[in-house]
Specification:
This is N-acetyl-D-glucosamine kinase. By secondary structure, the chain is α/β, with parallel strands linked by helices. The N terminus is likely disordered. The chain has three domains: about 150 residues, ATPase, nucleotide binding domain (Nucleotidyltransferase, domain 5, 2-Layer Sandwich), CATH 3.30.420.40; about 150 residues, ATPase, nucleotide binding domain (Nucleotidyltransferase, domain 5, 2-Layer Sandwich); about 290 residues, Alpha/Beta hydrolase fold, catalytic domain (Rossmann fold), CATH 3.40.50.1820.
Length: about 675
């Protein structure tokens, strides 16, 4: 008992430090350890135990001694305000401007090693790296643009390649930075004063801002203290003059926009983030005071417009963070080094206990998706509000429905997700776990049992017409969306037959109602191994007409080749609401093949954003159908991932694989929902 109490007390005292070291200011936050291996979302807002701020820590700007002293100051002050000492620190992550080379990284590491005990884990990165992680749920993929006192563009590919542009300081051409904008404005004032340039409103406005009476005094003011942040503080004056119609100020800002966009383009081109056709999707995280002017002359939005013109698949993200319940400006990213460092720390511990994942699949066993918990306890643990309902459709059938959302009124819903299950499943159990994973990320999720499936009425395994099923989906999703704001971004997710229905919904409704479409193992082409045995395939139309309810023989039972892991096959088969036996009727088989042909004919008109996921060894729905859809669809925002070796049901693979797939899905939704909210 005593040792358990000591361990509990020790865990409560452990902290992690995050340092955001910029050219303008340096902030350190002290927060409790919230391991990523713990099966819960990080609290929102994250509890801040202590916070301290100081000046510049970029050694290129203020020198090594001043930079080191600034870092030591904010670290000690943050710990003091948290009531902690150095022995309580498990790890510290520093995102520091000016760390541009391994030698810079080693320099800062040596500074920090001299402060902490030997067992403390220390991570040092350029501030751009942790800024990128702040907008991509901790993953290093995509591009980040920072424009504050200085500026830098930095990018990573999924396989770890990286590239940077700008960030070398004002002497070497960072003209999109706050310093670059302000220094050009000061130059314009001096040119106007000398008669070497046109008159500009900047002269009087800058003099008034600095409390000077003549442009001649600007010379002394500039060289008395040429720190970058002091010069960059004049950016708001330049923006104000541009908004008032000053042509010189407008040209300065326009040039800065061009420079910033070029920095992003350089990174994208070097890493091929947009793909060969330059239309692929990738996140662009944007942080820094220059990009968040919140004025009529909005530099950030102008940069976004230029990026999107070159790369229509780019997904701009502006992270928004709260600390201690107090909202911070959107350019504030100070928790991100903590978040990034915490993740690095957790992954580096290599504890014996298996890492728990955010997807609830790891709690399931062969008997229950809820593991050893009751259904009620499961939802309480995950803090998800789960509701069940039903409606009567046009055929007078009772259609069962479910919904999931965060059970926290203070947590805003970021997007709507309608989910459609496949032919051999229903909206419960394994499919339900996917819905819970999505709801945990802040989505409102809803699904229905298709006719003849799960708890809905209708003949089992017998689909004589696909249209009533599609009508049920559209009616249900429309009613569910009507309970939310009309501008809430909406997405469709479909598995197997549900993927085909989701596609048909977009073909019928067009792209307008839906922000994006996610297809997992979609039924776009029935595999040869799943088609009726020869010669029945050729006689199927006649068989469907003469004996529509006759259950046909197929080459391989679908259940055995849907889920790779045996315990998941057992779990799927044991669902109490499962009604499908897997062998379709002749009419059903004819309908499924007809749907595939319809999609093949009409998919060229699809303009909705699409994420296509498919197992490379799917012997039920041929992955060639997924590839054909990707090539044919007119969408300018489309991504395809064929997972080598994976079977039909992606959730039937290893739990680690499921986690990776749903990270892809939820990140894809997040970046498009953020873009919709920006626009």
């Amino acid at each position: 008992m005593g040792s358990e109490s000591e361990e509990r007390r020790s865990a409560e005292e452990e902290v992690i430090l995050g340092v955001d070291g910029g050219t303008t200011s340096t902030v350190c936050v002290c927060l409790p350890l919230l391991p990523f291996s713990d099966n819960r979302q990080l609290p929102d807002p994250i509890p801040v135990l202590g916070r301290a701020a100081a000046g510049c820590s970029n050694h290129n700007s203020v020198g090594e001694t001043a930079a080191r002293e600034t870092l030591e100051q904010v670290i000690n002050e943050a710990l003091s305000r948290a009531g902690k000492n150095l022995s309580a620190v498990l790890a510290i992550c520093l995102g520091v401007s000016g760390v541009n080379h391994p030698s810079d990284q080693e320099r800062v590491l040596n500074w920090i090693r001299n402060i902490f005990p030997r067992n403390v884990k220390i991570y040092v990165q350029n501030d751009a790296v942790v800024a990128l992680a702040s907008g991509t749920m901790g993953r290093l993929h995509g591009c980040v643009l920072i424009a504050g006192t200085g500026c830098i563009a930095y990018g990573f590919t999924e396989d770890g390649k990286e590239a940077r542009s700008a960030g070398a300081g004002p002497v070497l051409g960072d003209w999109g930075s706050g310093y670059g904008i302000a220094s050009r404005a000061l130059t314009a004032v001096m040119k106007a004063h000398d008669g070497r340039g046109p008159a500009t409103m900047l002269t009087n406005c800058i003099l008034q801002s600095l409390g000077l009476s003549s442009p001649d005094e600007i010379i002394g003011w500039t060289y008395a203290d040429s720190s970058w942040a002091r010069i960059a503080a004049l950016v708001p004056v330049v923006v104000s003059c541009a908004e008032s119609g000053d042509q010189i100020a407008d040209e300065i800002l326009s040039n800065a926009v061009q420079e910033l966009a070029l920095s992003v383009k350089a990174v994208v081109q070097r890493l091929h983030l947009a793909g060969e056709d330059e239309k692929g999707t990738f996140p662009v995280v944007m942080v820094g005071g220059v990009l968040e002017a919140n004025k009529r002359w909005d530099i950030g939005n102008e940069v976004i417009n230029l990026i999107l013109k070159a790369y229509p698949g780019a997904c701009p993200i502006r992270p928004k963070i709260q600390l201690g319940g107090q909202p911070l400006p959107t350019n504030h990213k100070e928790p991100s080094p903590y978040m990034f460092g915490q993740k690095l720390y957790t992954l580096s511990l290599k504890r014996e206990k298996k890492r728990e994942m955010s997807h609830p699949i790891h709690e399931a066993n062969e008997k229950s998706p809820y593991g050893n918990l009751t259904k009620e306890a499961f939802y309480k643990k995950h803090n998800i509000l789960h509701q069940e309902s039903s409606f009567t459709n046009a055929q007078n059938l009772n259609i069962f429905t479910q919904s999931w959302q965060p059970n926290d009124p203070s947590c805003p819903i970021t997007a709507f997700l309608g989910m459609i299950h496949g032919y051999t499943s229903e909206s419960g159990w394994l499919f339900e776990l996917n819905a819970v994973a999505a709801a945990k990320s802040g989505l409102f999720v809803c699904a229905l049992d298709l006719q003849g499936h799960g708890l809905s009425d209708g003949p089992r395994d017998h689909i004589t017409d696909i249209q009533p099923l599609l009508d049920d989906c559209l009616r249900f999703f429309a009613a569910a969306r009507a309970r939310h704001p009309p501008d809430l971004p909406a997405f469709l997710y479909g598995e197997s037959l549900g993927g085909a229905l989701a596609l048909l919904a977009c073909l019928r409704q067009g792209a307008a109602p839906w922000r994006g479409l996610i297809l997992s193992g979609a039924m776009l082409e029935v595999s040869r191994k799943f088609k009726p045995v020869w010669p029945l395939e050729k006689l199927l139309p006649a068989a469907a007409y003469v004996a529509p309810a006759w259950r046909i023989a197929i080459t391989a039972p679908p259940g055995r080749r849907s889920y790779r892991e045996g315990w998941k096959r057992e779990l799927a088969a044991g669902s109490p609401s499962r009604r499908t036996c897997g062998r379709p009727t002749a009419a059903t088989a004819q309908q499924l093949l007809s749907v595939c042909e319809c999609i093949k004919r009409e998919c060229g008109g699809l303009e909705v954003a699409m994420l296509i996921l498919h197992g490379g060894e799917d012997v039920i729905c041929d992955p060639e159908g997924a590839r054909r859809l990707y090539e044919a669809a007119a969408s300018k925002d489309k991504t395809i991932k064929i997972y080598d070796g994976a079977w039909h049901q992606l959730i039937g693979e290893s739990n680690e694989f499921v986690e990776e797939v749903f990270y892809t899905v939820l990140t894809w939704i997040k970046v498009r929902a953020d873009l919709a909210n920006i626009n």
